[in-house]
Amino acid sequence: MKQSLIGVLTVVMLWAARPTGGMELIVVRPDGAGFMERDSRKPWVPFGTNYYDPNTGWAPKLWRQFDEGRVRTHFGVMQSLGVNCARVFLTAAGFQPNEDKVEEAALGKLDAMVRIAREHGIRLIPTGPDHWEGSPDYWR
Fold first, then answer.
1. In three state form, how does the secondary structure of 75-113 look?
2. pTM (whole model) above 0.70
3. Which among 50, 61, 115, 126 could disulfide-bond with 56, CB atoms 3.0 to 4.6 Å apart, if both were Cys?
4. What's 59's domain CATH number?
């Protein structure tokens, strides 16, 4: 069901957003005029991109042909350019192909990407579920 996938992805997104590894939670400044790190109160200006592997293409190919080494290289380049946030697209069929099955391998790939992003000081914005492959049959 839609609600099952949305629930799983919500948990994944909240887990990915938790502050660890020296990266503070980003919050809106009290005056509403921008963002800051919650504890240090240092200003934070988002400079980001949509991420996909240029060797494979957009989701779902990013997840089906996931290459941790290439992702690590790409995030290193993004870090050197000053990127501090990146949006990645999660696909419905790729992460929950059946009504009663969550794709563990896809979650493992997302976990690897979260880890790589943290190593490079880049915050991820997981987006979706998208329907690049069309809506799963169980949504109809």
1. HHHHHHCCCCEEEEEEEHHHHCCECCECCHHHHHHHHHH
2. yes
3. 61
4. 3.20.20.80
